[in-house]
Each structure stands twice: as C-alpha cells, then as structure tokens.
Write a structure and sequence with these properties.
151 residues, mainly beta, 12 strands, 50% strand
C-alpha cells in the first residue's frame, strides 16, 4: 500500500508503464469530468470516475482484487479508507473472477488512511481495503479509481 499526493505521483511511474498512463489521466482530469468509465489502455488500465456520500466505518466492507491494482484518488471531499493485509482477514465471499473482488469480515485491527482532495492511495492484490468511509462526518466525495492490470 502506498499513499501520497498527486504532486509526487511521478515517483511511482517506475512501478510499470501503465502507472504513467494512470497518473497522466489524473493530472489532466478536469473538475467537471463526467462520472463514468474511461479506458486508458483498454482492459489493462481504465479509470472509474465516481461520486458518492461516505458512510460510517461500521458499514464498511473489506475487499481485495487479484487482477488489478487500485489507484484511488480523491478529487474533491474527504474520505477514510481502512487497510489490512489480506492474510490477516477472514473471507466472507471468495474471489469472484468475473468481478475481480473478494470480500472479508471487518477485522479488529486496521490502519486508517485519511485522504483529502489531491491525495491518492495504491492498493496491491495483497492489500485488503475498505473504501468510502467517513472522515469525522459524512461527506460527498468525487473519486477516481484507476484499475491497473497486474499482468
């Protein structure tokens, strides 16, 4: 798991060529980009622009992905994400290959990550995470999740 600001994103382009495409998209992203899916490199790298209201941590759900690395970027608002290594999590729904997601019970011990506008986190396949949670109180968030294929 990595967390940083978009101002430092070029430090992570060495993770692979798709990371450069992902950060190029985020750096050029207008504030009024319509909600939806944007293909950067087909199924190998695509962006999901979304907006929603954060929820209490008690309503959070842990997940992980095998096929994709998540770059989760907050364009507007504030959000808490919880992190835990998947080897410490109890599976509630095994990995669903068609949706590339597995779900886990909320663990007793997590690491909170508080993100504000201009900040991102990168979750790798071994990183369990619960996104979309309140940071102090409910907030409307504009977020971009970029899916970067691990292959």
């Amino acid at each position: 798991m990595i967390t940083d600001t978009l101002a430092h994103c070029r430090r992570y382009t060495g993770l692979g060529p798709r990371f450069a495409a992902a950060f190029d998209f985020l750096e050029r992203l207008p504030a009024d980009q319509p909600v939806g899916r944007y293909e950067l490199e087909g199924e190998n790298c695509f962006a999901l622009v979304q907006t929603y209201t954060t929820k209490p941590a008690a309503q959070g759900t842990f997940e992980s992905h095998r096929r994709y690395i998540d770059i989760q970027f907050i364009q507007a608002g504030v959000e808490t994400l919880l992190w835990a290594p998947i080897h410490t999590l109890q599976v509630t729904q095994p990995h669903q290959p068609d949706k590339d997601v597995a779900f886990y019970a909320m663990p007793a011990r997590t690491t909170p990550i508080h993100l504000s506008a201009g900040e991102f986190t990168i979750f790798f396949p071994e990183d369990g995470h619960a996104p979309g949670l309140e940071y102090g109180c409910s907030s409307v968030v504009r977020k971009v999740v970029i899916k970067v294929s691990v292959t």
